[in-house]
Amino acid sequence: MQGSKLYVGNFSYSVTKENLEELFSNYQIRDIRVIEGKGFGFVELSSPTEAENAKQALNGKDYTGRTLRVDEARPRGDRSSDTRRGSGYNRF
Question: What is the pLDDT of residues 10-38, one digit of tens each?
Fold first, then answer.
């Protein structure tokens, strides 16, 4: 694993930052961000090794009745090249 930031998904919409802090309490947490009402968030740990260990331990685990998905977070793409913003045709 190259980075230390994890995507954590498929949890209940009612899960809070404090819930994820408890879930990841065995690891050295740098930052946690829950995307409210979406069922996912991001957890940044102290090192890539720590992130890999957390991923291995928690991915696929049952949490609040749902199966967690834990994976390395991908960087946000360059939104300026998003082809969905226009049709590519000139409009007169």
Answer: 999 999 999 999 999 999 999 999 998 89
* Nearest C-alpha neighbor of 76 from the set 3, 16, 27, 13: 3
pLDDT of residue 8 exceeding 90, the answer is: yes
Are 31 and 44 in contact by the 8 Å Cβ rule? The answer is: yes
pLDDT tens readout for residues 42-80: 999 999 999 999 999 999 999 989 999 999 998 877 445
Taking every pair of Cα atoms in the chain, the longest distance, rounded to a whole number of angstroms, is 60
65, containing H or E segment:
none
CB 30 within 8 A of CB 73: no
CATH for 5-74 is: 3.30.70.330
Asked if 48 contacts 4 with a C-beta cutoff of 8 angstroms, the reply is yes
